[in-house]
From TrEMBL:
Gene3D superfamilies: Glycogen Phosphorylase B. This is Glycosyltransferase. GO terms for molecular function: glycosyltransferase activity. Signal peptide: none annotated. SUPFAM superfamilies: UDP-Glycosyltransferase/glycogen phosphorylase (SSF53756). Keywords: Transferase. Residues 195-326 form the Glycosyl transferase family domain. It comes from the Bacteria. InterPro entries: Glyco_trans_1.
Length: 373
């Protein structure tokens, strides 16, 4: 066991009624490895706007001390200037807490993580564990993400955990599956998946931010291209500033579509357990946890082959859409629902095997074998 861990991230954090809350999937991940440490300092962004967000989860561990930085971000010139002006303040806070740590864990791509990565070249008497959640394929990354990826590629004195398996992957960059499932989830999922019938009408689900970058517009367009009688329900789980326009575009579905907003893990899993297909035609990804969570319940992915998704999803366990190809996503979804029931059942069984790679137990075993050995 190590004594002190400092986590540097841009994770949404807020204090409500004297209790700190943070983005649920990250809290779950922290809970899985907190037993390895005596003390944990968690640096994230203060997000009071998330107080009613059901995806936020209470941080209950007494080991954790939270430091909430002032949130930064934006795409305008003024926003960029504000970010630069905040860098010295963030640097001081991050540097001070790194000096106290035995292990430093950064969660990139993010501004706080980038600062910590740069510090790692100066302060080498730590165990550095950088997590890069974006795609390792630099061609699909925004400019600042590419910079962070390139710096991490050169940080050979550290360990970097990444999504997928890449040609010419540096030795210090380790392929990891991001955990999101318990062994109980796997057991329950196998029972539910085994009882599913893959005949129409179908239940479709999407989990993520409601935005064109995640393919929300493509999903609605594709659903227009299949018979309405083939659709039992469409669950759109997530939120975004364009939600109203998506609701208007999906009006043709009537009460067959539900915009849920962000939900906690239990409710997300409940909806995925009813789903036949998980839809995610996004522009760029590392590897979305939603695919693994859907796979746990036999929800067949109909997804874009970006990032490391194609390293896990094949024609044997899902439907891959080539975002740069000539075939539209609508055609891929049409093919999915027209596939024979027996074949869909086989694919649902195959995708269950994928889910087992994304358990917290598997994650801890990887950490101990590859990072802390």
């Amino acid at each position: 066991m190590y004594k002190k861990l400092t986590i540097v991230s841009d994770t949404a954090i807020l204090k409500k009624d004297g209790i700190y809350y943070a983005f649920g999937p990250v809290v779950n991940e922290l809970e899985s490895f907190e037993h390895l440490f005596d003390e944990i300092t968690w640096i994230g962004f203060n997000r009071p706007d998330k107080k009613d967000d059901l995806s936020m989860k209470a941080i209950t561990s007494t080991k954790v001390t939270v430091i909430a930085l002032q949130e930064i971000g934006g795409k305008t010139l003024f926003s960029s200037l504000k970010i630069l002006l905040r860098y010295p303040v963030m640097f001081f806070i991050i540097f001070k807490n790194i000096l106290k740590a035995d292990v430093v864990h950064t969660r990139a791509p993010s501004h706080p993580a980038f600062i910590a990565v740069l510090i790692s070249f100066l302060v080498r008497n730590k165990i550095w564990w950088h997590k890069f959640a974006g795609s390792w394929d630099a061609g699909s990354l925004p400019f600042f993400y590419r910079i962070q990826k390139n710096v991490l590629s050169k940080a050979k004195h550290t360990k970097v955990t990444i999504n997928g398996f890449w040609e010419n992957q540096p030795k210090h960059c380790l392929s990891f599956e991001n955990p999101c499932l318990s062994n109980e989830d796997i057991k329950k999922g196998k029972i539910i998946a085994g009882s599913k019938n893959f005949s129409p009408p179908f239940v479709f689900s999407f989990v993520g931010r409601l935005e064109n970058a995640k393919g929300t517009d493509r999903i609605i367009e594709a659903l227009q291209g299949i018979p309405l009688e083939s659709i039992e329900k469409v669950h759109l789980i997530g939120d975004g500033p364009s939600k109203a326009s998506y609701q208007a575009a999906a009006a043709f579905l009537g009460d067959k579509v539900v915009f849920h907003g962000f939900l906690d893990k239990e409710k997300v899993h409940e909806l995925l357990s009813r789903s036949h297909f998980l839809l995610l035609p996004s522009n760029s990804e590392g590897f979305p946890k939603a695919i693994a969570e859907g796979a746990c319940y036999g929800a067949i992915p109909v997804v874009s082959g970006v990032g490391s998704i194609s390293h896990y999803i094949t024609g044997q366990n899902g439907f891959l859409w080539d975002i740069n190809g000539n075939i539209p996503y609508t055609s891929v979804l049409q093919k999915a629902i027209q596939t024979e029931e027996s074949r869909l059942k086989e694919m649902a069984t195959n995708v269950l095997e994928l889910a087992e790679k994304f358990t917290f137990d598997n994650y801890i075993a990887q950490l101990q074998q590859q990072l802390f050995n």
